[in-house]
Design a protein that fits this description.
Helices cover 36% and strands 17% of the residues. It is α/β, with parallel strands linked by helices and 347 residues long. The protein binds phosphoenolpyruvate and manganese (II) ion (MN).
Length: 347
């Protein structure tokens, strides 16, 4: 249930509505817009009638949200959610590029790649230290050692670090080093993990599961939001279809669809979507054109020797070219590429 307060509503009236909802066993979530306050009543609202609620002091209108997700819905929070990480604000209309290796494989390569992607104009550094691998015999990640290399790379470049958390037991460790905690496609419906990241303060990058619908993705985001963490970025990374030429099928329509459904920022990961380096740039360019808030791209200095996802990794030179292609499209659609513009200015 969404309760829209009158423009003239006083703080006492807002507090009173919240107190009455809580007395009814509901949780009240406040969304304070520029000229309106909206209160989301979350819980079992089946016994609530709109009419009596409308007579509460300061209430202008009451809407029943028919969508299964509430806090993630644009009905509840009409303005875009902005997520500030260091000097960057995601969701503000700028286009942020998260780049780096699939896995952190060692100190030298992590530092080298961090400098390379920063000089090319990336705004965030990515790298997995805990790797979700299909086979138990594949490289599983350097764990804490890898997190330390990422932290050192942040220290040297200033780039905030995005890295994956796979198990709630590793949350204290990962959040000590990460600026943004990534929840991977395979864990999108690990509800315990979602609750844990919802109950802490770092922003979360939530990737769409291989077979998840947009509603499934938004319900997973709802788990995080419901625990009190409002900083969730969504990431379309391709879904399973009958097509096998590409690793997955990039659902670019997810971007404008999610824009309508939710106020949360939307990223695109073209690397895991296509699985082939030569198709990454065209899809990345598409992501800017359809209005994404950013992309996540895998970059490796020696893709042929990469311990994971070499075939889809761009070499730094190709990534540099991609950044200048993105710039031209960003200009055309009126978006800024903050990392890129700063990198140009440093030259
Ligand atoms: C990743 O980004 O490192 C990753 C494993 O991606 P996904 O969870 O989308 O497969
Ligand atoms: Mn990968």
């Amino acid at each position: 249930m969404i309760i829209v307060m009158k423009q003239s509503a006083t703080q006492d009236e807002v507090n009173n509505v919240i107190a009455r909802l809580e007395k009814l066993g509901l949780s009240a979530h406040l969304s304070q817009g520029k000229d309106r306050t909206i209160i989301g009543a979350v819980g079992d609202v089946s016994g609530l009638q709109e009419k009596p609620l409308q007579s509460w002091g300061g209430v202008e209108s009451v809407l029943r949200v028919m969508k299964p997700f509430k806090l993630a819905s644009r009905d509840f929070h009409p303005q875009d959610t902005l997520i500030t990480v260091g000097e960057r604000t995601v969701g503000s209309g700028d286009f942020h590029v998260i780049a780096g290796p699939c896995s952190v494989e060692g100190r030298e390569m992590t530092l080298e790649l961090a400098h390379a992607v920063k000089e090319a104009g990336a705004a965030f550094l990515r790298g997995g230290a805990f790797k979700p691998r299909t086979s138990p015999y594949s490289f599983q990640g350097l764990e804490e050692e890898g997190l330390k290399y990422l932290a050192e790379a942040r220290e040297e470049t200033g780039l905030p670090v995005v890295t994956e958390l796979m198990d709630p037991r590793d949350l204290p460790l990962v959040s000590e080093y990460a600026d943004v905690i990534q929840i991977g496609a395979r864990n999108m419906q690990n509800f315990r993990l979602l609750r844990e990241v919802g109950a802490q303060e770092k922003p979360v990058l939530l990737k769409r599961g291989h077979s998840a619908s947009l509603v499934d993705l938004l319900l997973s985001a709802e788990y995080v939001l419901h625990q009190g963490n409002s900083m969730v970025m969504l990431c379309e990374r391709g879904i399973r279809t009958f097509e096998t030429y590409t690793r997955n099928t990039l659902d670019l329509s997810a971007v404008p669809a999610l824009r309508e459904l939710t106020h949360l920022p939307v990223f695109v990961d073209p690397s895991h979507a296509v699985g082939l380096w030569n198709l990454v740039s065209p899809m990345a360019r598409g992501a800017v054109a359809v209005g994404a808030d950013g992309i996540m791209v895998e970059v490796h200095n020696r893709p042929a020797e990469a311990l994971s996802d070499g075939p889809q990794s761009l070499k730094p030179e190709r990534f540099r070219e991609l950044m200048s292609e993105l710039k031209r499209i960003a200009d055309a659609v009126g978006k800024k590429l903050p990392g890129y513009e700063e990198a140009r200015a440093r030259l």
